[in-house]
Amino acid sequence: MESRIFDELREIVGPRGLITSREELHTYECDGLTNFRVLPRAVLLPDSTEQVQKIVRVCHREKIPFVARGSGTGLSGGALPVENGIVISLTRMNKILEVDFANARVVVEPGVINLDVTGRVAPQEYFYAPDPSSQSICSIGGNVAENSGGAHCLKYGFTTTHVLGLEVVLADGSLVHLGGKTLDTPGYDLMGVFVGSEGTLGIATKIILRVVKRPECVRTLLAAFPSANEAGAAVSDTIAAGMLPAAIEMMDNLAIQAAEAAVHANYPNCGALLLVELDGPAAEVAALMAHVDAICKKNGAWEIRVAQSDAERALVWKGRKAAFAAMGRISPNYIVQDGVIPRTELPNVMREIGRLSREAGLRVANVFHAGDGNLHPLVLYDRKIPGQEETAEALSSRILELCIAAGGSITGEHGVGEDKKKMMSKMYSEPDLETMQRVRCAFDPLQLSNPSKMFPTPRLCGEKPGEYVAHPLETAGIVERF
Amino acid sequence: MDASVSAKATANTFENDVREIVTAKYVRAAVASDAVAGAQPRLVVEPGSELELAKVLKLANAAGLAVIPRGGGTKLEWGNRPARADVILSTAQLHRVIEHAWADLTVSVEAGCTIARLQETLAKHGQRLALDALWPERATVGGVLSTNDSGALRLRFGSLRDLVIGVTLVLADGTVASSGGRVVKNVAGYDLPKLVTGALGTLGIITRAFFRLHPLPKETRTVSCVTEDVREAQRLVTAIQNSKLAHSALQICCEAEMQPRVDLLFEGTDAGLMAQVEQVKSLMRSATIADAGDAWNARQAIHSAGKQRESEFAAAKFATLPAQMAEAIETMARLSGAGVRWKVATQATGIGWARLEGAAPAVESMLREFRACLERFGGSLVVAHRPPGMAELDAWGSAGDALPLMSAVRRQFDPQGTLNTGRFVGGI
Questions:
Q1: Which of A104, A274, A391, B386 has the lowest tally of Cβ within 10 angstroms?
Q2: Could you tell me the strand order of the sheet in which A163-169 lies?
Q3: For residue B54, which residues of chain A lie inside 8 Å, CB to CB?
């Protein structure tokens, strides 16, 4: 990159908004998935939409690829820099711009931390529902890019359910507004396709969120089962009984041990732990809690506890949310996966994971959002043992293939990013992927915005936007346009 | 060869080719009742499978013929008059419920299946698609998705964008593509189910869909309350929304020279409902309580011709902020003046439906002014039913600064403008 470009970029963001020194650039070489690392040419720290637009215009003119980055907590390499590209870090755009309680809307900049939205509206008894485990550090902009989930998505839906409008800087630097404060704005639901597009369609610079009223009552039940089979049956019975809990989480023994070692959540030592949270009107919750309790007992739960206070509830969740990080207590290295299966396939898939784990000679800890079939198998290994990392990666891919074979998905909330793009062609056919990339070509024909992510093979955007191409039959005079 | 002769020749060749693909009895000349918003197509084709549909569409696209997808035909008049209309491509033969995976709370269904038939199948296992669509007996899955039709249950369960988890669609060039799938949680690739929801068939013809399902409620109660005026109705709605009640639907129904009525729907266990109904009585001065919910037919009533002839009313969907519903209703009442009778059903989401009866010019000017007022505050108005004299009124209103991007998406999916051309927002 020529020095005149650096000068121009410095002019836009000021000397403190441009990072070019090697040591400092290392901070940005990866996201939460640390086994992929690329050093960017520069990192820009804009503090306004105008600055983002100016930076992107320079990139467009000079054909420099760019990657937007929030807090860098993503687990699929979505914010991994690209060779010879720049990183646009949105951390300085961290203002909550507007809180409108009458309409339950909050307008934020992309660098705002997820939990800070809830923090801001909590005094009026509202909360922001999507709750990824990293919610105390991850940014809303990143959540939008990944369509982040969390334990309570089962009832409340994902990020996409709670985003109503976006201000987006497109890859040519132009600004568009998708959706809005009101619902069903006329035209295509481009906001719906932008959420979860992993930074490949542009950069969100303003986000209109919906916040939700706190339920009257929240109860969390903890049930200890001999194994995941019995716990899985209890989940199926709960759903079959017509209940929609706020969350149903499952942890296996290895995950319980790790969580205990890390945060002393006081979990029972059992084969599989089920955590069921119900919320709503007190009378309704009481009636349903009794039902869940009976279902757990029927399926062999040997210990059932209901968190009695907010503090107890917080501790129960702390153990669950710390589960990934806690793996460090029981293994030097681990790979987190994010497969999804139809809930009913749980016993089969668990059995197969167990078999594959034994074959590979590696331990696999399991943490699931059991209610919606989202598995987080954690493949434990030691990088120092030659060949073990490769074995772990192979095992991890085999697990995703199992999920696809069971009719599921390779990712429920972490995204495809760099990590799983090769798996996309196992899940989707060529025409499926080609069709998705038509969207990309409409948004970013030069493919500058987070290129090389999500798709195994990028599609060439042959069509020039705006240009009408006459049909061969038309050229030949066989048909006419009328 | 002049234009009409050459076009006719192309259509004849196309018709012969189509007969090779689709059983002869499923290809017929279009009649007057097949007209779409005043445009008369020439041919109606009902392919027997997704593959047949793809072949027919590919042929039509290659022949430069304009195609209009059709499900139950209940909302075919929504959108602008087609710029061209040659072939109606019907999904009537694609009517199977493919798999109701009840233990997973999902269903896969062909696009031509009616909503009523789908719900009947789901009810066998105590489940439902949590959507109260218009004309469920005739409206199809594909049509409901393409028009993004949803009713009062949206407050609790979201609209179709929150319920659809996968689609298969056939693009104008015959490409068959799927996105999403049978699991409720899935972020692999772009969310095309959302993109095609509400796209009025302009990006491709939906042939199959996967939905997430909800249990049928054990018990329901509707609580209704007549209020002094719309301001009081708004205050009541805001208070309910601000409370910790867990209701499934909440609406204000109102018409010229009548007092507004607020309806509230509870679903759940008997114990939960009783407690909530007690709570709500403290917010409402006078309330009537019913097990059945006739109140929830209000949106359908707005669209039904009833005693009027089709030429005598207009129906429109409008969007405001939830706290501005009263303002919107008052604006409408003010604009309607003496010559236009009006009736609305607005939901606590801020989405409302209005019916206007009167002379076409008066109704048209009222709709234009009402749209302008709504758009000033970030809202919108989309006209669904128009009497014949109002064909020039744009159905959609402004798509804002995203219109060029929308056009670019359309060109990627349907570069020749084969599908529903000219019908969507901004002439797309």
A1: A391
A2: A96-100, A105-108, A203-210, A163-169, A175-179
A3: none
